[in-house]
Fold:
Amino acid sequence: MECRPHCAACCTAPSISSPIPGMPNGKPAGVPCVQLDADLRCKIFGQPERPACCSGLQAAADMCGTSRAQAMLWLDELERATRPD
Structure:
């Protein structure tokens, strides 16, 4: 499955604990990654400095749904379900 243009839900909704260029401590849930450009595309896509958790994530129908809003809801729920107590 190809990523939806102008979505970036997976670069916004989840927290990332790995260092990201420009975000050395990762990012909290709900905060857009600083590596997103104006078109919501990853500026470090395919680069070695891209975190493994990002490069390993693949678009899938259950995660992406039919809209950015659906993807955000699914990813928000996953974030809540996997948050450490």
Remarks:
- The chain has one domain: 9-82.
- The chain is about 25% helix and 0% strand.
